[in-house]
Amino acid sequence: MSFTSCHKIALSGRPHGLPPSVVYRLRSIGNNSSSRNFASSAARQKERVLIVGSGWGGYGVLKGIDKKRWDVTIVSPNNYFNFTPLLASCAVGTLEFRCAVEPVRRYAPQVAAYQAWCDKIDFGLKTVECMPATPVPFDASAPATPFTLRWDKIVLAAGAYSQTFGVPGVKENAHFLKDVRDARKIRIRVLECFEQAMQPTLSDIDRRNLLNFCIVGGGPTGVEFAAELHDLIHAEMANHYPTLAKLAKITIFDVAPSILGSFDKSLVEFTEKTFSRDGISILTSHHVERVQPGKMFVKERGEVPFGILVWSTGLAPNPLINSITEFKKDEKTKSVLTDEHLNLIRNDATVDPDVWGIGDCAQIEDAILPATAQVANQKAQYLVNKLNKLVKDQPSSKPFQFENQGSLAYIGDWKAIYDNSHKESKILNKESGRVAWLLWRSAYFTMTLSWRNKILVPMYWFLNCDKISPLIRNRISNPPTGIFGRDITRF
C-alpha cells in the first residue's frame, strides 16, 4: 500500500475489513504528515564561494574554510597543490615527487573541484567561464567544451607564470621549476645528459657541453637547485660516473650585480664563497639574448653550450589576470591591487566586498610584499578567518598584517642560510652553515600539510642521505656514500 493510499484512508472513515488499531495508526500517519506539510520551512541556502587556483593561496583557503556553512567550489588546471620549496630536491632525486604534492580532492565531496582553466570572469553577472584541462573523452583531438560557473564570493589565487622577459627561444628550450611536472622533466634530462655523455662515439668536447648545466636566475630557487644538483653530481654521479662527474660544470647567470638580492650581504658573501669552493660558477651582470637547442647566447660571453638550462628569473602575470580590466593593477608586476582587507580595488577606487585576491596574482596597494609562499600562506590564513566569521554574521575589521618569519635557502653540502635581520629583537637574526641547515629542514618539515608527507619527507631525507656518520664510516670496510643514495634510474 502506498503512502498516498494510506493518507486517503486515514482521512476518511473506517474502511471495511480493517481493525480499529490499524485505522488509528493510519490516521496518526496522515495527521503527522499533514502537520509537517504546513509547518515545514525552506532550508537556508549556502552562499557559493569560488576559489580560483590551488597554490599556496588557493589551497590554504580550501583547507581552512568552513565547508559546512559555505558552498565551496575550486577550479584549477592541476588537481593538486605544489609544495614549491621542495621541488629542487625532487628534481635531483633527494625526495620523490609525491612528497611535494597534496591532492585537492582530499576535501571532496564537501567541495566541488574542477580541473579546468578559468578564461574569463564576469564580475557583474558573477560568473566564470572555464575550459576543461583534461582531454576530451573518447576523442582527444576534439576541442573541449567550455562551461560556466556561478558564484556569490570569489577568491582569486591564480598564481603567476615564469618570467622570460621576451627572450627568444626560452619557452621552447629551457626548463622551469614551478611545478612537480617541471621537476620530473629536469630529473629525466639530467640523467639523460650523463647517459648521452657515456656513449663512446662522443668527443670530450661534446661531453663537456652535455654536462654543462646552466641556471639563469640567482634567486632562492636558482641557488637551491644549483646546490641540490651539486650534491647529486658529487655523490651519486661521482660514484657511478666517476670520469664524467669530473667534466660536469654548474654555472649561475644573473642580470643583477649579485645573487640572492633579498638576503643580507654577509649571507650572500658566505654563499658565494661556498659555491666557489664547490666549483659552482656565478656570473652576475650577464644578459641572455636568445636561446637555441643546446646553446644560449650571452651578451658578455657569446655562445654558451649546455646540456640543460633551468630558467628562474621571476614571475609574469597569469593570462586570467591580464584579462581583468575592472580592477586596478600594479604598474610593474601587472598583478591586481587589493586593499588591506585583501578585497580588489575597482578602477574608480571603490572596493568590491565579494572579490578577494591573494598569492602571486595580487598585491596590497601601498604595501608591496614579495611573491613568496610565506606571504601567500599568511594571506590565505587571514582570509579563512575572515570568511568563517563572515558566514556567521561576525564581520572582521582587522586588516591583514604580514609577519616576516625570515628567509631560508639551501646552499649544498648540509649547509643553508637563514635571514631574519629585519627584526632586531630576534635572538637569531641570521645564520649560516649547519645550524641554518637544521632550521631549513625543520621549517619545511613543519610546513608539510598532511601527516602522510610529514612521514614521507624525513624518511626520504634519511634514505637518500648522501653522507653517513664518521663513527659508522670508520667501522665499515668500503663504506657507502650514504644510507642508500638517490635513485638514478631513468624511465
Automatic annotation (TrEMBL):
Gene3D superfamilies, sorted: 3.50.50.100
Keywords: FAD, Flavoprotein, NAD, Oxidoreductase
InterPro entries in UniProt: FAD/NAD-bd_sf, FAD/NAD-binding_dom, NDH-2, NDH2-like_C
Domain External alternative NADH-ubiquinone oxidoreductase-like C-terminal: 405-462
Domain FAD/NAD(P)-binding: 48-379
Top-rank taxon: Eukaryota
GO cellular component, one term: mitochondrion
Molecular function GO labels: NADH dehydrogenase activity
Family that this chain belongs to: Belongs to the NADH dehydrogenase family.
Record-given protein name: FAD/NAD(P)-binding domain-containing protein
Organism: Favolaschia claudopus
Source organism phylogeny: Eukaryota, Fungi, Dikarya, Basidiomycota, Agaricomycotina
